[in-house]
Amino acid sequence: MKWIIELYGGLGNVEREERDQHDLLALWRKCRTIFESVPELDGDEALEAVERVVKDFHDIDKNATSFRYSKNQNGAMITLPDKSIDLQNVRDIMERVDNFFHEAYLLLSDIVLTQTEEGSS
Questions:
Q1: Per residue in 100-116, pLDDT tens?
Q2: What is the CA radius of gyration of the chain?
Q3: How confident is the model at residue 7 (pLDDT cuts 50, 70, 90)?
Q4: Which of 61, 87, 108, 112 is the most buried (most CB within 10 A)?
Q5: C-alpha to C-alpha distance for 93 and 3, rounded to whole angstroms
Q6: How far apart are the first and last CA of the chain?
Q7: CA distances (Å), 19 to each of 2, 3, 23, 77, 114, in order?
Q8: Contact (CB, 8 A) for 12 and 34
Q9: Which residues of 32-45 are buried (b: 16+ CB within 10 A; e: fewer)?
Q10: Helical axes 24-36 vs 45-60, angle rounded to 10°
Q11: How confident is the model over 15-38, as pLDDT tens digits?
Q12: In this predicted structure, what is the pLDDT of residue 20?
């Protein structure tokens, strides 16, 4: 999401993120603004699906640390919910999310390239 914001924020008048920003929901909102500025992506059902996944991860781990570190900044062990996790399902969902971002990146790249070519004509 940071990469999309960095490269294509101008399409949606979205400012770049600080490098240490890890709030997934805030990052998603900026990406969504960019995506909604593009007719081909605005209203896409995939936007809603990806948003649900981002919100789920945000709700579980608001600081985006639990899945990356074993201890918090104070040195205390991070605990995850005491529930089973269907890793196969998580993998499948994350592959779909990755595909969405890859396709969005290609579309945004084409749009910027076309704008650049039209501007130099």
A1: 999 999 999 999 888 88
A2: 17
A3: very high
A4: 108
A5: 20
A6: 32
A7: 8, 11, 11, 25, 29
A8: yes
A9: bebbebbeebeebe
A10: 170
A11: 876 766 788 999 999 999 999 998
A12: 66
Longest dimension (CA), the chain: 60
| CA distances for 108 relative to 6, 27, 51, 93, 104, angstroms | 12, 17, 18, 22, 6
Q: For tokens 């999310």, what's the residue?
A: 97
Nearest to 39 by CA among 11, 60, 15: 11
Tokens of 16: 């770049």
What does the block give as tokens for 21?
Answer: 């920003």
How many whole angstroms separate alpha carbon 51 and alpha carbon 97? Answer: 10
Cross-strand pairs, 71: 77
Mapping DSSP to helix (H, G, I), strand (E, B) and coil, where does residue 62 land? coil
The token duo for 1 is: 């999401």
